[in-house]
Amino acid sequence: MVDAAASFNEVQPAVNNASTTRTTSDANKPGDDFSERGDVTAILTKHGWRLIRDGKEPSVPEGRIPRITRLLALAHRCYDLVRDGVIINQSELAHYGQISTTRMSQIMWLDNLAPDIQEQILDLPRTIQGRDAILEREVRPIAKTLDWDDQRKMWADILQRLRKCPLTEQN
User: Fold this and answer.
1) Polar residues compositional bias: what residue ranges (predicted)?
2) What pTM does this model have?
3) Ramachandran bin of 61, using left for φ above 0, alpha for ψ from -120 to 50, beta for the remaining angles
């Protein structure tokens, strides 16, 4: 190709110095310069993929995230979608989530919890075995209470119940 370009009096392509340091078997791999710039990692990350490399396999945390924690995170995400105008209202969210509007309202109420309660819920330890220590139906009445001081009292009652339960492991 270089000879063809020279024969038409065109400018010859610049030689990439990075390719000269490679072995001859790697010299002409398509996309080498693309990978060297780090574009592959950026594109994979953007589309939800991970670049897998040789080495020690990443550890997977033991147990599962409590359901109330996942629902609170979902409530935050749904609230952001409505606030940013991506979704018009909770009814549209319920439609896309294929759940009833009542259920969507129950989930969205979790966003009304006092910030310190939300933080404690998001920091709950993983459930290793059995059912979650705190159930959503226990938190629902707290979320519907608008006064944060009252919410904190109700939350303290739930935490007190957990401390008395012999099956609950305290961390």
Assistant:
1) 14-27
2) 0.63
3) beta
Task: Assess contact for 79 and 72: CB atoms under 8 A.
Answer: no
- Which token pair is 155? 């939350």
Give the count of beta carbons closer than 10 Å to the beta carbon of residue 128: 9
Residue 98 CB contacts under 8 Å (≥ 6 apart), including other chains: none
| pLDDT tens sequence across 106-139 | 999 999 999 999 999 999 999 998 999 999 999 9
User: Would you list the domain boundaries of the chain?
Assistant: 2-46, 67-164
Cβ(13)–Cβ(6) under 8 Å?
no
